[in-house]
């Protein structure tokens, strides 16, 4: 097959907001306990943080990590997780039917973010709690001192404020599974009021309101419209969540989910802008795609879990090669919308639907680690409008191109990077791109992630089954890039 990419260095979509490479740690399964925190592990430092895990996270260069949930936050009392550890209560976590020991909480998380070279995106409980609690936690975290909650933080050993800049107003409040779930008008009001009061405490914070918990939930659309109508002036971002699965073992259709994701983003942008127009506002509401990934491998296993254990193996999807292709495609899709998608969180980061897995004997990288690592590392700069002309196939999401591709220009480094997925399972694809505007640019590196087996996985024993390798299938001749994309593959073509 043959394809063409058309770019123009003056046709810029937007500067990439680095927070598009965010991730997520929830109190769920072994994400916290046995994931990032395991005091009894030989790999842990004096605070109990797994250093082997932090090292792998640092390589992903994740600028922001959403915490503490997810569904968990909708029943959480953050006060349970601060202060002397031997006084912290054991509680039921009704989101995941387990026991929460509270041995890791807000202050430990903030210490951990520094070691993992990241920043917090903190969620407040708008399920079982409300405006007052949202005010108190901002006061605890962000005020210098001289008030009850800021002095409490000092008493807990944290003299300086945590100064958390990004806050989520609850989680998936439209979902009937959510503790304290709400109708759209109910949520719109509480989000607006909680947001207003939180910004009274610290006007420098930014706020993310809950959009729909997926595109497929019945209330999608009207939910966004109502919530925005209530809370437009108080919030900065609206959230999107979406997980995909290949339950039907139909890989072309699975990979075509990028079409659905693209439409999802465009639809939410349209609703934000419709409300903007109705309200005659100048400010845009941007998007926070703060839960996205593949999630389905562990569904059956998780049905068998016993209630009220601590940190069980839960949502531990083992990712295969085709999952890595879709993860690359989803990241490319979000980058194409970099003008409005400013924040995104790969859900999640460690053990729970995650790129990083741990055991008592080490930590290793799942297949999806690699597209995330490469795109996070090389996808900084300006997204160029990237027009792909490639053959299409029919899918349940409509016509899907065999090619997902985006170009990122880094003017400071005089570099251009092309990320591309060839979704064709049997044919290679010749890709051309006119680069005469980029005089003298040559291919510096061509990396490819491919595997003959779509279901190949990485394990602790065999961690290197699916890894990117260098190849030399791209060349610039007379200003035109010619690259050969082998069947079922993800490519990073770096030009300088
Ligand atoms: O990421 C796992 C769960 O998926 C989160 O807790 C919830 O927000 C979503 O439904």
TrEMBL record:
Transmembrane regions: none
Domain of life the protein comes from: Bacteria
Keyword match Chloroplast: no
Assigned EC number: 3.2.1.55
Biological process terms in GO annotation: L-arabinose metabolic process; polysaccharide catabolic process
Pfam families in the cross-refs: Alpha-L-AF_C (PF06964), ASD1_dom (PF22848)
Enzyme kind, highest EC tier: hydrolase
Keywords of the record: Carbohydrate metabolism, Glycosidase, Hydrolase
Domain Alpha-L-arabinofuranosidase C-terminal: start-end pairs: 290-489
Catalyzed reaction equations: Hydrolysis of terminal non-reducing alpha-L-arabinofuranoside residues in alpha-L-arabinosides
Pathway(s) served: Glycan metabolism
GO molecular function, one term: alpha-L-arabinofuranosidase activity
SUPFAM superfamilies according to UniProt: (Trans)glycosidases (SSF51445), Glycosyl hydrolase domain (SSF51011)
Matches recorded under InterPro entries: Alpha-L-AF_C, ASD1_cat, GH, Glyco_hydro_b
Oligomer and partners: Homohexamer; trimer of dimers.
Entry's family note: Belongs to the glycosyl hydrolase 51 family.
Annotated protein name in UniProt: non-reducing end alpha-L-arabinofuranosidase
Species assigned in the record: Blautia liquoris
């Amino acid at each position: 097959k043959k394809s063409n990419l058309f770019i123009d260095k003056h046709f810029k979509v937007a500067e990439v907001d680095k927070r598009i490479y965010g991730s997520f740690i929830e109190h769920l399964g072994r994400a916290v306990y046995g994931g990032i925190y395991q005091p009894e592990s030989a790999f842990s430092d004096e605070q109990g943080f797994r250093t082997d895990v932090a090292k792998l996270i640092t390589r992903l260069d994740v600028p922001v990590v959403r915490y503490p949930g997810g569904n968990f936050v909708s029943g959480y009392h953050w006060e349970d997780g601060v202060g002397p550890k031997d006084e912290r209560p054991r509680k039921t976590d009704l989101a995941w039917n387990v026991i929460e020991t509270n041995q890791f909480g807000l202050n430990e998380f903030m210490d951990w973010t520094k070691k993992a070279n990241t920043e917090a995106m903190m969620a407040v409980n708008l399920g079982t709690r409300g405006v007052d609690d949202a005010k108190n936690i901002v006061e605890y975290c962000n005020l210098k001192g001289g008030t009850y909650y800021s002095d409490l933080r000092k008493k807990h050993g944290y003299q300086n404020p945590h100064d958390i800049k990004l806050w989520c107003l609850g989680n998936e409040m439209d979902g009937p599974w959510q503790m304290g779930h709400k109708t759209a008008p109910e949520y719109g009001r509480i989000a607006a009021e909680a947001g207003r009061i939180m910004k009274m405490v610290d006007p420098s914070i930014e706020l993310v309101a809950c959009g729909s918990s997926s595109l497929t939930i019945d209330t999608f659309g009207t939910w966004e419209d109502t919530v925005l109508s209530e809370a437009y002036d108080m919030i900065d971002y609206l959230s999107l969540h979406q997980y995909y699965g290949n339950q039907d073992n139909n890989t072309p259709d699975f990979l075509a989910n990028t079409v659905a994701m693209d439409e999802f983003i465009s639809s939410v942008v349209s609703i934000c802008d419709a409300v903007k127009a109705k309200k005659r506002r100048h400010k845009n509401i941007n998007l926070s795609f703060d839960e996205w990934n593949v999630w389905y491998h562990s569904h059956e296993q998780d049905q068998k879990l016993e209630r009220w254990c601590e940190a069980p193996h839960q949502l531990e999807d083992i990712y295969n090669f085709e999952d890595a292709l879709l993860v690359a495609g989803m990241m490319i899709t979000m980058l194409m919308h970099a003008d409005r998608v400013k924040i995104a969180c790969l859900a999640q980061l460690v053990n729970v639907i995650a790129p990083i897995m741990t055991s008592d004997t080490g930590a290793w990288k799942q297949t999806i680690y690699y597209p995330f690592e490469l795109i996070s590392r090389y996808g900084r700069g300006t997204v160029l409008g990237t027009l792909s002309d490639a053959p299409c196939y029919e899918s349940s999401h409509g016509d899907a191109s065999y090619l997902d591709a985006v170009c990122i220009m880094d003017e400071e480094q005089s570099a251009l990077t092309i990320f591309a997925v060839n979704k064709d399972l049997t044919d290679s694809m010749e890709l051309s791109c006119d680069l005469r505007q980029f005089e003298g640019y040559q291919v510096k590196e061509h990396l490819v992630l491919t595997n003959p087996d779509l279901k190949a996985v990485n394990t602790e024993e065999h961690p290197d089954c699916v890894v990117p390798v260098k190849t030399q299938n791209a060349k610039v001749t007379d200003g035109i890039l010619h690259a050969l994309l082998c069947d079922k593959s993800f490519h990073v073509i770096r030009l300088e």
